[in-house]
Amino acid sequence: MTAGPGRAQAPPGEVVELRVHGVSAGGAAEVLGRPLVRQVAGDRSAGFYRPRPDLADGRGASGVTLEAYQWNDLPSGTALRTLSLLFLMPFMLLNVAVWMRPGDAVGGAVVRALCRVLGLSLTALYVLAGAGVALDLVAWQCLSVPACVADREWLSWMGGRPVGLRLVVLALVPAAAVSLVWWGSRRPGRSFTAFRAPERATAGPPLSTIGQWDTEPLMGRLRSIHIAAAFATLDGCLLAARAAQGVPPTVAVLLAVTGAVLLACLVLVCVPPLVDRAPTDPRRDRVARVLRGTAIGLTVVVAGYLLFAPARWRAGGGLPGYGSILTWLLVTHAVLLGGLAAVLIWHRLRVRGHQPPNGLGALVVAAAAGGLAVAYSAELVQRTADLLDRGVSPADDIPGPAHAYTWAIYGFFRALLVTLVVAAVVALVSRRGRMRAAGAIVERDFPSPPAEAAPRLRQVRTMIVRARFTDLLVPLAVLFAVMAGLGAATTAMALVRPDPGETLEHRTHVPAELVMFGIEVGGVAISAAVLALILAGIFAYRSPGFRHHVGVLFDLATFWPRAAHPFAPPCYAERAVPELARRITYLVHSGNGVLLSGYSHGSVLVAATVLQLPAEVSARVALLTYSSPLRRLYARLFPAYVGGEMLRGIGGRIGWRWRNLWRDTDALGGWIFSPHRPDEPARVTGPEATVDRRLRDPESLVAPPWDSVPPPIKGHLPSEDDPAYAETVRDLAGRLRAAEP
């Protein structure tokens, strides 16, 4: 992985500026600002690049040697994999929610357990969606109506077959889907076999553990548990349908075994010593594998029983028991979200000096994951029902999907609509205050603007106003989480009142037709959003610019190791952080100083890397961050891993050779320790007062004499071509050269 002796190494005593880009960067040539580069270490997925010495100037400001770490191919893949990630996004978000847990041991353990149980509920929900299509709509409803199978050769061959046979054959569809996800989830986080985990784990803040531990043993156990829960859920659907025709002793025993498997899955994910600890303990692996094998064997037994045991099936309506199982699962999901909210609010009230919304990131992301999973599942079943209904006369109309799906679409759309309306109101109400603050900033930055600069001045002010709206997103996200939880809870109405329109008309006097029209609009909007995501996944590999926007979510979410759901995509930081640490160690041991430069999300990677460096290496390292979301986003969303103490620890490790560049026009990045201007005193004391440096954006309002347009408003764009960036590089490089090797 590291470069050999003859592969473009800096001479001893030099300073290497190692640049780490943000999400979805264009490439090493763009990061280095040189047209021709060559790889000096790494592989196709991630590697270190330098300008070609024979065709480009490889020196930066103050004569530093330029080098870039390109990692954006680690979380990416083929177009097919991107499409699969779109449908596995709820699992990916739930993994992020685990890392938003509180910092104390008790609260963190409870949040982790609740998120893992939520993960089991999402797996069961996906299985129920597949069962709703294959078992309920096709095997039970459509194949019982001759008009539904007419002119459909792919279904007509099953018409007239025994109900047990139809259920068993169609149960292969959700079973195959589970097997496919099982196979796809076995992709490791480290993308090449030559990679070795760090030889030793350095003690330090929790963020330093990223990349120091191998999650594959944990994921192997969780994977087995989720596979067991998935097949047990499928067994429950089949057995509930059979139990509605009568409960002979065999069915009772099979139901008891199915419940025992689900209970065992629940216990295993809630008890950390059974899953997390002793990663090389074969006994824990054996328990998980035995549970998985038991569930798969149980599915075979259930299928055999339905095939060969005689039964008199009473047709009509939906698949017996399916609607109740789905409804209670959604209600359980809402209860889990309520428990998560209670734990987080209790923790925030105990910790002084923090606003309550700042500690609810886990609730927000978990609710978003559940909302997306419900929306995906409901739309899959609803659109399949529409397809099967097409061409069927009203007299032969099939009953359609379970009523819980209609309530679920109503709840999700209501949560989204209320959040958007409140967001619009908040934007309008807060605009005056944000305009006032932006006006003060612009007036101070450009005290005497010329008359022709008035339009440009308005653009700058508008950019600052928009950037400040980011700080209001946290309470809006909390509102969405609360509404999504209430939406999941309202699905319990499907047990007593199947029609949301009639129920709401009775309680609120809103016409039922209007309610059902709104639900239909919500369903169409969800379908359009899913279609847009599919098209985004396809066109992401045709347009680099479009790929940048699509890849942002995946890059941010897959930074954190999998810890709650094993079907999510793997974590690229498990390779990137140790790889960066090893490269920096090699350069320092070769006699060089290293100026580690991190842009945007790259600043999070370099922060985690610095925490892993031994003292003799960090003594020869300086840090430059720009457009960094460390304080503005990560400290608010991940309080257990990013905070003031951790950030001060980074500064202390590198002797406070740290500069952070930020702009008021940046909607994502910001200051680290103090938001003071260059001509103002810092709001903190000590060495951290020297870290932050605000950049005026734009540099001027009018075009310079050598240009025809004014300088651009950069916002969150990189700063490598900014004069302040070059000045900061010279300052930090000089401090590295002055430091004693």
TrEMBL record:
The keyword Metal-binding does not apply. Keywords: Membrane, Transmembrane, Transmembrane helix. The chain crosses the membrane at residues 79-101, 113-135, 163-183, 225-245, 251-275, 295-313, 325-346, 358-378, 407-429, 472-495, 515-541. Residues 679-724 are annotated as: Disordered. Residues 690-699 have a biased composition (Basic and acidic residues). The keyword Transmembrane helix applies. It comes from the Bacteria. This is Integral membrane protein. It comes from Micromonospora chalcea. The lineage of its organism: Bacteria, Bacillati, Actinomycetota, Actinomycetes, Micromonosporales.
